[in-house]
Write a structure and sequence with these properties.
Nucleotide-diphossugar_trans, globular, Glyco_trans_2-like, Rossmann fold, alpha/beta, Glycosyltransferase, 9-stranded mixed beta sheet, 3 domains
Length: about 400
């Protein structure tokens, strides 16, 4: 078996389905297997996916195992020479996985490979490549020097933002959203540390691969990452789990440092968690007392696809009272779609919804990469499922 793909799912069955639809094309010609570990979802994920995908291994957990433990369960049952840990709220370009696997074949010291992740508005996700969060690197990130001097090899090391995002490069930390692993490497250094419930385990594994003598690489092959649909980043639980993971990593790898170094770092982590809670609470307070611009809370949908898709989405838009525009096309024209962004009114957030029957996943990624307006985000419509998927909601 050449490749195993592992997806850990929690209450995101429609995003998983979209991810699987993209994998169907991306895995053509690759000897592969797919595992889905469902962390005790309450949305009927297991039943829904089992009826539609008979050749996929689905592990139905009776409770929420967390990201690391769930992945490890599937890892131990799998047999791929390479193992891809893939987030459920992603989709991949048709050639992305093939090129990543070919790269691993050509670079035997590569223990892990990450790729170019795009946000829903098409912008480059900084988490695509990162440096190890050493005490000094973390300090530069927390005090704002990383953001102020991104081209600096010293201050910008947290996101390694001095590297060309369109060139392959050796990096230190690979994102768990798309983490392609060499099995012989993880057999040598161990897989994910189950002390991490969620977040931080990818940093820890990346570090152990480097300490084991392996290389971590970034490849400019695109995927879309909706970033947090399965983890609810607006919740207090997210803040607790995320910053707790930072403390676990710090204690595991830097506890040998002196008290006068560790105390400021721990204090900074708690301070950042507190500030995150405040930033999370303010929008809810503004909304509750009526200070939110209601127009900014609405969304304009632009549906682009075949006449069959336009007809279906017109009916959905009428049913839900969506502010919508429609454009019928028979073939994708990347240049025309990219030129469209400058003509879209953005007096409110906009979601451009493409018909996946004619717009390939790589094509949509290429189109969105030209977008420079963060109010414009990508959505998809599948004739197979008749479901509209956007970064913030599912419309049926």
């Amino acid at each position: 078996m050449k490749l195993t793909v592992i997806i850990v799912s929690y209450n995101v069955k429609f995003y998983v389905e979209q991810c699987l639809n993209s994998l169907e094309k991306a895995l053509e010609g690759i000897d592969s297997e797919i595992f889905i570990v469902d962390n005790h979802s309450r949305d009927g994920s297991v039943s829904y996916l089992s009826k539609r995908y008979h050749d996929i291994n689905i592990i139905d957990s009776s409770h929420n195992l967390g990201f690391a433990r769930a992945n490890n369960i599937a890892y131990r049952q799998s047999s791929g020479e390479y193992v891809l840990l893939l987030n459920p709220d992603t989709f991949v370009g048709e050639d992305t996985i093939r090129k990543a696997v070919d790269f691993m074949d050509e670079h035997p010291r590569a223990g892990g490979v990450g790729v170019k992740m795009l946000n829903p508005d098409g912008t480059f996700a900084k988490e695509s490549r990162r440096g190890l969060p050493t005490p000094m690197t973390s300090f530069y990130k927390m005090c704002g020097l990383c953001e102020r001097f991104p081209a600096s090899r010293i201050f910008g090391r947290y996101y390694m933002s001095y590297l060309d995002r369109d060139e392959a490069a050796r990096i230190e930390v690979i994102s768990g959203a798309f983490f392609l692993l060499r099995r012989s490497a993880t057999d040598a250094v161990g897989c994910l540390d189950e002390d991490f419930f969620m977040y931080g385990e990818d940093i820890d594994l990346s570090y152990r691969l480097l300490k084991g003598g392996f290389e971590n690489w970034y490849l400019p092959q695109p995927i879309m990452h909706y970033k947090g649909e399965s983890t609810h980043k607006t919740s207090f639980r997210y803040v607790h789990v995320f910053y707790q993971a930072m403390l676990i990593f710090f204690r595991k790898h830097y506890s040998h440092l002196g008290f006068w170094i560790t105390l400021p770092i721990k204090t900074a982590i708690y301070a950042k968690a507190f500030m995150a809670l405040i930033q999370m609470t303010l929008p809810n307070i503004r909304k509750a007392i009526g200070l939110m611009d209601r127009r900014a809370m609405d969304t304009r949908y632009i549906f682009i696809g075949r006449s069959k898709m336009v007809e279906r989405c017109t009916s959905v838009a009428r049913r839900y009272g969506l502010t919508s525009e429609f454009r019928t096309v028979d073939t994708p024209d990347v240049a025309m779609e990219q030129n469209m962004f400058g003509k879209i009114r953005t007096d409110m957030p906009v979601c451009v919804v493409y018909d996946t029957e004619i717009f390939g996943y790589a094509t949509m990624l290429e189109i969105m990469s030209a977008n420079t307006n963060d109010k414009i985000k990508l959505g998809t419509y599948s004739e197979k499922t008749k479901i509209i998927i956007t970064p913030s909601e599912i419309i049926q």
